[in-house]
Model the fold of this input.
Amino acid sequence: MLESDEIDESEGRPAVRRSALYIGLRNGILGHGIDPGTKLPEDELGAIYSVSRTVVRAALQALAHDRLVRLEPNRGAFVAKPTRTEAREVFEARALVEPKVAALAAGIATHADVERLHRHLEEEHKAVRAGKDGEAVMLSAQFHVAIAEIAGQSIFTEMVRDLCSRSSLIISLYWRRRDTICESHAHHALVDAIAKRSALDASELMTSHLVDLLSGLDLSERQSSGKKLADILMGRSPARGSEP
Amino acid sequence: MLESDEIDESEGRPAVRRSALYIGLRNGILGHGIDPGTKLPEDELGAIYSVSRTVVRAALQALAHDRLVRLEPNRGAFVAKPTRTEAREVFEARALVEPKVAALAAGIATHADVERLHRHLEEEHKAVRAGKDGEAVMLSAQFHVAIAEIAGQSIFTEMVRDLCSRSSLIISLYWRRRDTICESHAHHALVDAIAKRSALDASELMTSHLVDLLSGLDLSERQSSGKKLADILMGRSPARGSEP
DNA sequence: TTGGCAGACTTTGTATACGAAACGCCGATA
DNA sequence: TATCGGCGTTTCGTATACAAAGTCTGCCAA
Done:
């Protein structure tokens, strides 16, 4: 509820207009209420939110730039379906950016910042215990963004926000059953390192946390046969490993 | 002007529609035909390109997401004016991302890739010799993007593209007179390192090249008194209360 | 002369309307 | 019976129209 606002009302970007539709749709996708690949017809969305197609299109375009929806010319909008390759690339980018950001954050975090992270952790725990999986993933992403905000580098914050958004989508697609507890544990350790102002620890913990996250994903090339076939026929990414 | 297309027709992003207006405006800003801070009225742009305000708004929104224009609610669109802080952050981000990207590129560059870079270098030289300053900066940015494309990581490519766009704007704002030759020299050395498949060299050369670029900028807080004053009065914290 | 106010003008924000392209259905034909 | 082509429906793309917010100018009063 209240955190819906916090996602986008972060102090970093004052100028960009974000309609209620944008926020709602974004939370819907990130909270896994809407499956990847789902079509998002303009009329329908306009009817739901009682706005005209004009504003729907604007929101859709913004979401498309965030890579959360895919705009196909003359076809419409669909919630994005990152490929495994994209997924790997996203995590490779995170592995580069986030340890650096964590180190920066550890270097300048105030007591209030640490307090804030602790509160966030609390919420995460609550969501996990309540079994609200989608919300937990969303809060987890917000945790990473929160660290970036502490680091105080707006460009890095943007990057992390973007990458975490996509990661949420990726997780909803490629997550294989595994214990979520370990993640919360990693977050705790991270906060401790930041509280201790240990940049090195924070950096290394972030690295291993991301490796851990990635290892929880099923990014092997096979899996659902129909999808692969469709991809090949469409000409999207035919080259890499062929599946018998 | 054939390169105008190449900027945005890169193979990385097939779905996003980019109107002629978007491309034209982008090139106008990046090529320094339009000064930062300039207002971009919807009607005027629509008249120039013979399109309705609908498509103008879409292009403006896309540009805003690229941080090339700034959208002020009920005020209109202005070409962005990065602050010195933002400028520093952009280059800090580049310092993190681009050496990594250069190393990746060096690791997998084909002969054709190196050839392409050489051709690009040639164009850069031509632009510099012709005294086309704006075009030279634009080509320089494209060079960095080209390296990212060779690296073959679409997320990194996006990042570099974004950061280079902003850098063009930053350079047009904060560049202090200095020799441009050194830059071309750095690019040459970079290509050589990539041709030799030396990831370490490429990484280090990129780092020093970026440091060099940054040192060519005047990012000190004072500088031209008039502009500074205007900045303070306009952007920072306008004295809310009435003047005694 | 200066400060404040009210009006018109300009520019943006949103809605609606119309044209175009794509998809699906159905019948005709080999 | 399977395939191909035409037609209708649906949805998107663009233009235009109207409403709201902001800005500027000119006037009046202190």
Remarks:
- The longest strand of chain B covers residues 69-72.
- The first helix of chain B runs from residue 3 to 8.
- The domain at 84-215 of chain B is CATH 1.20.120.530 (Four Helix Bundle (Hemerythrin (Met), subunit A)).
- Residues 1-15, 223-244 of chain B have pLDDT under 50 and may be disordered.
